[in-house]
Amino acid sequence: MKNEIRIIIFDWAGTTIDYGCFAPVKGFIDGYKSIGIDITNEMARKPMGLLKLDHTREIAKMLDTPISEEKILEVYSVFEKILFDNIENHCDIKDYVVETVKVLKERGMKIGSTTGYTSAMMEKVLPKAAEQGYSPDFCIAPDQTAKGRPYPYMIWVNMMKFGIANPREVIKVGDTGVDIEEGKNANCWTVGVIMGSSELGLTRDEVADLSEDELTERKEAVRAVYYKAGADYIIDDMNELLCVVDDINKKLNQNAERLLLTPGPLTTRHSVKHAMLTDHCTWDDEYKAITTSVINDITNISANDDYATVLLQGSGSYAVETMINCLCKKKDKILFLVNGEYGKRMLTIAKNSRRNYDYLNFDMTQPINIKTVEKMLKSEKDIDIVAFAHCETTTGVLNPLEELVKLSKSYRKKVFVDAMSTFAAYDIDMPGLDIDALAASSNKCLEGLPGLSFVIAKKKLLKKSEGRSHSHSLDLFDQYQGLYAGGGKFRFTSPTNILLALRQALDEYKKEGGLQVRRARYIENHKIIVEGLESLGISSIVALEHQSYIITTFELGDLDFSELYAALKSKGFIIYPGKMTNIPTFRLGNIGNVYPDDMSELIKIFSNYVHE
Ligand SMILES: *Cc1c(COP(=O)(O)O)cnc(C)c1O
Fold it and tell me: Which residues of 248-327 form beta strands (DSSP E)?
């Protein structure tokens, strides 16, 4: 079901009735006067929005001398009597409320309400409001729930009443800071109304007497209260509420849950995104310890203590670039093995940095050919380093890592691997194979968020790289020093929230069962996609034995990509365009927080689409 706003929950006094919220103020002043204490208008108003007995207690806290609970109850009984005598004279409906509520109801929304009044008080208010054309579908008072505001219980009862599961389909509208807090605690959208609010605390006549500047100043003060309380929207009058509803509905649609079948950014787990909600400072010791733990966990996935993981701010290409530029000597010659866009990207990096390099080009639909590489290594004696992508994400071709590394090592070459799309999903034994360096990132098979990449390299190699970098921000040695000698310190601003998300992603990786289990899930996902599309006559362009279980390229045939994309998007799946130049293709990634069930669902939708 589509997410959209289903209930609007209004506060009463100051929001929908009683311009300026005057009914309770007199009661509190007279109540305190009855025990010989004078309070100001501001004091009487400050806790507005709370259950009235709690409100009475809050005022007591502002006094110079403490008063007993007994006295507070005495004040409250006077307050209650005065309020009851007066309340019916303070039920005038505020501007635009009746018209706005009418439209909201016509558009299928339910009108709920919460209040600081007790249910006995509301019994007097409800008929008065109804007389003037305002009758919400539901009303609950704080004496009917365990606690009043800022607790969210009254909102929950509204949600129960209308059978709503998702608080993001609910808007709370109020005129005090505590109204906003109530909404925040319920995790629903919150709207503060300025004109006629208790926070503004003015009668219509008083507003009319203010100069334009004075009024603006008063309104800005109210705005500041709502803003600080965390309001999602702040409006002058209720006639702006319909625009707010439209805007939220647009956001809900944009943020609808869709599965990303791409090679990153991916669909990530809620816990991973949620981990970002804490703000940290780069220098903080606790934060630095988290950074170090991330470094150690990543190192342990594919390497050991002879290796270091150097985290870098930036996407995967940043790591590939520093690996190429900082880990070889000026004169070192690099041989790039290219069978797709990511191989080409390494070439561009080398070319722009004026490195000494050579390359071999291979068919994009085929893995790198060992024999061709061997011939090259045999004839070109001056090559120092061999570099290639493990999985060419362009097509999904998996290159023969072990054979390529063993071959290069038999010719005593160093090996740099772009393992961006395979790290944490394929068993890459860096020490066992004697791989010198590898580049990967947070947002592929680690299932973290984009913004962090890393190079895992032999410490020996890193230590020798001091002073080699032509770039300061991409100086791998300097970054290594900061992170290791500096106890987890990024040299420059660290993407703190993304790092926290990566910390959580690594925890999720362990929780799932590590490499073996994650790999098994990807293999199953991949199998369902390939077999399912094959049965619909849609073939992959890479032979099955050369495919990775990360991403697969399919022939588009007669299908139109834009139409296919839109059709699948409307059903909650985001697919990826192809990168082949000669034939029209599309790609399906199957990594991220996606499961065999999801893949089967995709095939069903695909089948319906193709048969239409
Ligand atoms: C994703 C990826 C990269 C890095 O790309 P960015 O857009 O910089 O994150 C590099 N190599 C391969 C093989 C990849 O899959």
Answer: 259-260, 307-313
Burial 415-428 (b: 16+ CB within 10 A, else e): bbbbbbbbbbbbeb
Judge if the beta carbon of residue 29 lies within 6 A of ligand 1.
no
Residue 408 DSSP SS3: helix
Q: Is 321 in the pocket of ligand 1 (CB under 6 A)?
A: no
Q: Is the CB of 389 under 6 A from ligand 1?
A: yes
Q: For residue 112, what is the enclosing H or E element? A: strand 110-113
Closest CA to 155 of 192, 186, 120, 130: 186
Which residues of the chain carry a pLDDT beneath 70?
Answer: 1
Task: Give yes or no for residue 342 CB within 6 A of ligand 1.
Answer: yes
| pLDDT tens-digit readout, 224-275 | 999 999 999 999 999 999 999 999 999 998 888 899 999 989 999 999 999 9
183, 184, 171: which is closest to 112 by C-alpha?
Answer: 171
Q: Vertex 41, ends 37 and 42: CA angle to 5°?
A: 105
Task: Choose the residue to mutate in 324, 344, 421, 442 for probing ligand 1, maximizing ligand atoms within 8 Å of C-beta.
Answer: 421
Tokens standing for residue 471: 């770039």
DSSP string covering 493-532: ---HHHHHHHHHHHHHHHHHTHHHHHHHHHHHHHHHHHHH
- The residues near 259 (Cβ < 8 Å, ≥ 6 apart) are 267, 572, 573, 574, 592, 594, 598, 602
Gap from CA of 342 to ligand 1 centroid (Å): 7
The CA distance from 20 to 496, in Å, is 44
Is 11 among the residues known to form the active site? yes
CB atoms within 10 A of CB 513: 12
Q: Which helix (H) or strand (E) holds 53?
A: helix 52-61
Residue 1: the pLDDT is 66
Query: Could you tell me the distance, in angstroms and rounded to a whole number, from the CA of residue 420 to the centre of ligand 1?
Result: 6
Task: Decide if 52 is catalytic.
Answer: yes
Dump pLDDT digits (tens) for 476-489. Answer: 999 999 999 999 99
pLDDT tens digits along 272-313: 999 999 999 988 999 999 999 999 999 999 999 999 999 999
- Å from CA of 463 to ligand 1 middle: 26
Residue nearest to atom 3 of ligand 1 (CA): 316
- Helices marked H in 425-474: 430-433, 459-463
In short, whether 420's Cβ falls inside 6 Å of ligand 1 is yes
Check if 421 has its Cβ closer than 6 Å to any atom of ligand 1.
yes
Q: What pTM was estimated for this model as a whole?
A: 0.90
SS3 (DSSP) at 313: strand
Give residue-wise pLDDT tens across range 526-562: 999 999 999 999 999 999 999 999 999 999 999 999 9
